[in-house]
Specification:
Helix content: 25-40%
Number of helices: 3
Distance between the termini: 7 Å
Largest sheet: 5 strands, antiparallel
Order of helices and strands: EHHHEEEEEE
Shape: elongated
Number of strands: 7
Strand content: 15-25%
Length: 229
């Protein structure tokens, strides 16, 4: 049994990012256009002067140049808006495609080992401590938010609750999390309890979450799925 539903959440929390990103490219591109504008304007003035256009007063010349500059600046603004929209669309598609790819990776893994391989605990890795992919991952083309402690844009979430007695994250049925469809009977015994079902789950709710920096703002998209045995 395998299905997924998509959800998208966008956060507009302004951040102080100093890295080289698409915004830097946009600024350089705009500077190039502005330089071209000035070159065009001065070339126009020079040509009008050289041709000695009769009856063309200074005021008329200024009006003509002003109109020319206004039109070109409008075009620059349109191109800038288009650039930002296109960049945002590209990054969103990168996030969604990577989330789908990660779901396929989980689906292709040994079902009984999915939780152990992709959770935050390295001690339960099937092939030894630190040998599994873990919950966090990179996405090529996306930069993490400066507020992201691990420096990775992607993370896999399971329905877990931290047990302060055992000091581990437990896979639980009684978690209250609507985005994962929880609470839910994970081992199919007809009862929702407070036990750790890391070793006997029959279905596994998963959320793939990707957060990245978009021109100083944090953007986030996620996919949720339930993988069954």
């Amino acid at each position: 049994m395998f299905y997924y539903c998509t959800n998208a959440i966008k956060h507009d929390n302004y951040l102080n990012s100093k890295k080289l990103n698409d915004n830097t490219i946009y600024i350089l591109y705009t500077m190039f256009i502005v330089r071209s504008v000035y070159g065009t304007v001065f070339a126009q003035v020079y040509m009008m002067h050289k041709k000695k256009i009769g009856g063309f007063t200074l005021i008329e010349l200024i009006i003509t140049i002003s109109i020319l500059v206004t039109v070109i600046l409008f075009l620059i603004g349109s191109m800038a808006t288009s650039w930002k929209v296109n960049t945002n669309t590209i990054h969103t598609n990168l996030a969604l495609n990577e989330a789908r790819t990660k779901i396929e990776e989980l689906q292709d893994s040994t079902f009984s080992q999915i939780y152990a391989e992709f959770n935050t605990d390295t001690l339960d890795d099937p092939n030894g401590t630190g040998t599994s992919p873990g919950s966090n991952f990179d996405v090529s083309g996306l930069y993490p938010s400066p507020l992201d402690n691990d420096g990775k844009v992607g993370r896999i979430f399971f329905p877990t609750i931290f047990n302060e007695v055992t000091n581990i994250q437990e896979l639980r049925e009684d978690l209250q999390d609507a985005s994962l469809g929880m609470p839910m009977d994970l081992n199919g015994d007809g009862v929702i309890d407070s036990n750790n079902h890391a070793n006997d789950y029959k279905i596994l709710p998963i959320r793939i979450e990707i957060k990245w920096d978009e021109d100083g703002r944090e953007k986030m998209h996620f996919l949720t799925t339930i993988i069954g045995q």
